[in-house]
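SEQUENCE-TO-STRUCTURE ENTRY
===========================
What this section holds: a protein sequence and its matching fold, both as plain text.
Question of interest: how does this chain fold, as expressed in backbone structure tokens?
***
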Amino acid sequence: MAIRPKKSLLNPNLFRPSALKSVPRSREPIWLDKNENLDSILMNLNHSILLELPLDAIATYPEAGETYRKLADYVGVEPESLILTPGSDGAIRYAFEAFVEPGDYVIHTSPTFAMYSVYCQMFGANAITIEYTRKEEKPYLDLNQIKDHLKKYKPKLLCLPNPDSPTGTIIASGELSEILNLCEQTGTVLLLDEAYFPFYDWTGVPWIKRSSNLVVARTFAKAWGLAGLRVGYAVAAPNTIDLFHKIRPMYEVNTLAVEFLSRALDREINMKESVIRIKDGKRFFEDKMRSFGFGVLQTEGNFTHVDFGRFGKSVHSTLFNKVYYRQAFEQPCLKGYSRFSVAPISVMKQVVELIEETVKAERV
């Protein structure tokens, strides 16, 4: 008898890239295409933490209680309002698994984090996308459209990264509060993706005490510089977290992650200092780009957008194989812009020097 997979997995549009095609990363180029943390000071600290891990960390199953208590202190909630996940991606998936059944409506923005669309297809949801448009030469999200669609479709999930990626845009807290109130009326879970916290340091976490319709997803990949550890967490009312525990694997994350986080959380100040260094690098880079006459989009994540205008072809040629970045976007809201992850000044200065050489040569 032939196998009988879930119908949603037979969707020809559902495709995941194979890891078999990946190759070891070259250390020579400057990697500014994945919004990772390239702060060498934090890297060295994290490496020292790695060397502190006990010998049995790789041989034993995780005991996460202490890490949960430290994380609760950092986030400002009770441990019962937390669950560790495989990156913020894992928190997002738990929300889909817990609430979305085939045929349910899910609203998400576009363009946005790619996994929202993937999970909609994976779980057989009817995806309603709210498209960013271009207004005053920058991405614009019509919040009235979100509210109208909430009333019309009464979706199971509303997915709102804040800030969003790749746009780097935010929704003001007052507007988010109105949207959450509307979600409570429509029986919708607001999945607030705070992957870039604290690069953008406003948070909706305190609202979990007044609403069980809110789930906040976070990661240790960006500000903490732990993308390779693949660990994040969800914050929500205890009754919602209880649902997530029902669908998690035997252990939320591995022992290396648990032991590492327990030590990293004791060094919160080092993470915050790294964020400051990266923001300084971002400011330096953007100021230089403006001084060259290039357009720069204001963003709230650890990345920025630059419009090189007539210099685009020459700049891209100069940076080829020296700096990896998102060269162009197909979406009209970002058309003409290139995206660079940002890093401390010492890193961004190398990129500026390459671009500056090109600008000077073109203007001769």
The mean pLDDT is 96. Residues 196 and 301 are 6 Å apart (CA to CA). The chain has two domains: 7-39+269-363, 56-267. The domain at 7-39+269-363 is CATH 3.90.1150.10 (Aspartate Aminotransferase, domain 1).
